[in-house]
């Protein structure tokens, strides 16, 4: 057989395969989401996220130092608010002595180089479990945006490097940027969850923070997963309003969106490899149906190949171990 082109030459051994690999993962790619709880020496495994824990602040601080030592440079923090602090205004979200604010300070103190990103949305603080303020059964936009601005400024005051609004209200990025400017937080970045879809895959996260919506769903603010063009519109608008990084979330069912957004923007694009994506791999691996480590690296590589410059993932620690 005479062939002009033999594509298998570039696949014939590990050396050539790695020389011509178009995508590779490094510790610089990852953002580590952390769940923080009140109390001391409290470590609770999240039932639907085996191997992932909600930790009290003392344990979290130790963990952050370990992550830094592993080469991980960024964390995204979430706190579990006590039931008695929850109401419809979400005001615990900007309590200067709240768990989030105390956590930011303690982590900055212990590991100043670690980039701290904070989730900005009202759901963990809302008695309704919604990302915004509820009136007559609806999630009201403009009042929620005012609350998110207060929340962002309080995170900046505590020392956050980036705020990450995950609420999908209209105009929040511009309002938060303005609020940060007016309060002289000119070094605080905004990572906007720009294309955040109303996904069934957030379930395990809502277990972690006990933040499932008490009524209805999030479809009046999070995007319809049938849509693609709308993701570009959201990302471009957030950039115009002052976003430094835009995010697509979830990641696995949305690789096409990651690529489209990447092609359309000139800022870094992040992807959120969310809780349900973690749970699916863990569950299948537990059943012995897939190889967990291979699945971790393959899925993360696919997100990077799709165009993600950064990936928030519960597998960050595992991935760093696997690639080093
Ligand atoms: C809160 C928020 C959610 C996630 C990140 N921030 C849940 C939601 O919108 O209901 C999900 C993360 C994950 O599933 O890993 N607004």
Q: Would you write up a description of this structure?
A:
The chain is α/β, with parallel strands linked by helices. The protein has a single domain (25-323), classed as TIM Barrel (Alpha-Beta Barrel). The protein has eleven helices and twelve strands. The strands form two sheets. Strands 1-4-5-8-9-10-11-12 form an eight-stranded parallel beta barrel, surrounded by eight helices. The protein has a two-stranded antiparallel sheet with strand order 6-7. Helix 7 packs across helix 8. The model has no long low-confidence stretch (mean pLDDT 97). Bound molecules: ligand PBG. Ligand PBG is lined by residues 119, 121, 123, 131, 166-167, 202, 205-206, 218, 274-275.
Order of helices and strands: HEEEHEHEEEHEHEHHEHEHHEH
DSSP, total strands? 12
CATH C-level name: Alpha Beta
What are the segments in which pLDDT stays under 50 over at least 5 consecutive residues?
A: none
| β-strand amount | 15-25%
**SS class:** alpha/beta
> What is the number of domains?
1
The CATH superfamily is Aldolase class I
Shape: globular
CATH architecture: Alpha-Beta Barrel
């Amino acid at each position: 057989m005479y062939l002009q082109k033999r594509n298998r030459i570039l696949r014939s051994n590990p050396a050539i395969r790695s020389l011509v690999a178009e995508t590779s993962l490094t510790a610089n790619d990852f953002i580590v989401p952390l769940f923080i709880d009140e109390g001391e020496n409290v470590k609770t495994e999240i039932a639907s996220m085996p191997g992932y824990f909600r930790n009290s602040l003392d344990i979290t601080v130790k963990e952050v130092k370990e992550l830094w030592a592993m080469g991980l440079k960024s964390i995204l923090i979430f706190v579990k608010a006590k039931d008695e602090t929850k109401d419809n205004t979400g005001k615990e979200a900007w309590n200067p002595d709240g768990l989030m604010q105390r956590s930011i300070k303690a982590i900055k103190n212990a590991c100043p180089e670690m980039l701290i990103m904070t989730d900005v949305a009202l759901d963990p603080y809302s008695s309704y479990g919604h990302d915004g303020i509820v009136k007559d059964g609806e999630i009201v936009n403009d009042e929620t945006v005012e609350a998110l601005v207060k929340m962002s400024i309080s995170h900046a005051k505590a020392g956050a490097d980036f705020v990450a609004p995950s609420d999908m209200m209209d105009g929040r990025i511009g309002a938060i940027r303005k609020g940060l400017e007016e309060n002289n937080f000119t070094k605080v970045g905004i990572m906007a969850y720009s294309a955040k879809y109303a996904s069934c895959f957030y379930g395990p996260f809502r277990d972690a923070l006990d933040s499932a919506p008490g009524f209805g769903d999030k479809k009046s603010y999070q995007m319809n997963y049938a849509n693609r063009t709308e993701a570009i519109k959201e990302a471009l608008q957030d950039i115009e309003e002052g976003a430094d990084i835009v995010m697509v979330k979830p990641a696995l069912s949305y690789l096409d969106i990651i690529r489209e957004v990447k092609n359309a923007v000139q800022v870094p694009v992040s992807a959120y490899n969310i809780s349900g994506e973690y749970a699916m791999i863990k569950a299948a691996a537990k059943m012995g149906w897939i190889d967990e480590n291979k699945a971790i690296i393959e899925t993360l590589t696919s997100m990077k190949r799709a165009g993600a410059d950064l990936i928030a993932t519960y597998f960050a620690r595992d991935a760093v171990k696997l690639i080093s």
